[in-house]
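Fill in residues.
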C-alpha cells in the first residue's frame, strides 16, 4: 500500500487514535502521525481549513474571523512564494472620496433616519431619535463592491446589541433597518465590517421629535411627524406613528390648491375613515391630532387628489 497516501487532520487526541486504528484495520500502514502545532489568536474563528505541502515542510491554516469579518491565514514552516487561489480584485477607478461627517446629529423625518456610507465613512457621527417609539434607518451604501451595515450597541465595546445587527449589504445598494423603541440614553453605532473607521454616537432622547413633544399613554413620548404637499404630491409615501397613543402630524400645503390627509383601514376600504383632516388651501399649515391606533399598516390619501397623493401608515 506504499503507493497510497493518507492525510488526516483531527482536533482531539482520541479522534486521532480512532483514525489510526481504522487505518490499520484496513491494512494501511504507510501513514505518519504529526505532532500537533498550536494555533494562537483564533478565538471566535469559524470554518477552519488546513493545507500541507507535499513534502511536509509547511502547513497553512485559514479561518474566518467573526469579529473583524475577515479571512485570516496562518503559516508554519518554510514559506516560499505564496499564491492565493482568489486574489484581491484590482481597483477599477480612483478611490471614492470620503464625505466629511456632519457636526450635527442626524434626526428622523417621518420616522426615518437617513444614513449614507461613502469612502469607508458614514456621513454622520451622531444619530439622535426620540424615545418611546420605533423608527427606521434608511441606509445607503455608495461604496461599490464594499460591504457595510449599521449596527447599534450599548457602548463602544460592541458586546451588547440594542437591536438585531443590521444586515450587511454590498454597495452600491440600499436597505431599511426597522429599529424597535429604545430607552433614553447615549449609545454607540458602527459598521461591523469597519469597526474602527466607521463609528458614531447614538442618542435616544427623553421624548418628542421634529416639531414638538408630549406624553402619550403608557409613558411613551408623543411624536410630531411632518408631511408636506407640493406639486400635487406628498413628500413621503410612508407615515410612521406610535401604536396605542395619540400622534400629531404637522401638515404643510405649499400648493395653491386644497389638500388634506385622510387615513383608512386599507386602500379598498375608504368607507370607514380612521381620520380625516380638514382641507387647507396653500400656502398654509395645520396640525392634525391623530387618535390612538392599533399596530398595523393602514392607508392615507388626499381627499382632493386620491389617485396622485397616496401612501402607507405604519403604526408600530
Amino acid at each position: 500500500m506504499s503507493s497510497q497516501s493518507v492525510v488526516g487532520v483531527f482536533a482531539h487526541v482520541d479522534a486521532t487514535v480512532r483514525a489510526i486504528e481504522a487505518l490499520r484495520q484496513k491494512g494501511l500502514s504507510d501513514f505518519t502521525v504529526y505532532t500537533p502545532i498550536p494555533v494562537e489568536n483564533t478565538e471566535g474563528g469559524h470554518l477552519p481549513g488546513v493545507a500541507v505541502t507535499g513534502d511536509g515542510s509547511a502547513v497553512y491554516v485559514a479561518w474566518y474571523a467573526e469579529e473583524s469579518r475577515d479571512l485570516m491565514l496562518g503559516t508554519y514552516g518554510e514559506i516560499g512564494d505564496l499564491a492565493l487561489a482568489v486574489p484581491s480584485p484590482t481597483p477599477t477607478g480612483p478611490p471614492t472620496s470620503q464625505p466629511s461627517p456632519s457636526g450635527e446629529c442626524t434626526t428622523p423625518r417621518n420616522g426615518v433616519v437617513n444614513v449614507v456610507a461613502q469612502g469607508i465613512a458614514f456621513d454622520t457621527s451622531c444619530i439622535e431619535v426620540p424615545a418611546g417609539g420605533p423608527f427606521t434607518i434608511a441606509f445607503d451604501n455608495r461604496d461599490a463592491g464594499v460591504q457595510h451595515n449599521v449596527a447599534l450597541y450599548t457602548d463602544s465595546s460592541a458586546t451588547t446589541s440594542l437591536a438585531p445587527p443590521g444586515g450587511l449589504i454590498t454597495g452600491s445598494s440600499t436597505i431599511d433597518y426597522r429599529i424597535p423603541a429604545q430607552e433614553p440614553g447615549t449609545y454607540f453605532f458602527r459598521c461591523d465590517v469597519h469597526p474602527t473607521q466607521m463609528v458614531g454616537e447614538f442618542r435616544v432622547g427623553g421624548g418628542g421629535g421634529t416639531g414638538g413633544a408630549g406624553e402619550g399613554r403608557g409613558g411613551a413620548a408623543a411624536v410630531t411627524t411632518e408631511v408636506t404637499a407640493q406639486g400635487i404630491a406628498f413628500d413621503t409615501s410612508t407615515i410612521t406613528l406610535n401604536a396605542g397613543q395619540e400622534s400629531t402630524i404637522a401638515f404643510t400645503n405649499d400648493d395653491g390648491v386644497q389638500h388634506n390627509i385622510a387615513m383608512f383601514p386599507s386602500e379598498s376600504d375608504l368607507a370607514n375613515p380612521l381620520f380625516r383632516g380638514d382641507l387647507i388651501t396653500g400656502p398654509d399649515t395645520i396640525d392634525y391630532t391623530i387618535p390612538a391606533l392599533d399596530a398595523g399598516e393602514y392607508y392615507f390619501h388626499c381627499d382632493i387628489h386620491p389617485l396622485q397623493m397616496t401612501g402607507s401608515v405604519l403604526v408600530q
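Residues 132 and 167 are 24 Å apart (CA to CA).
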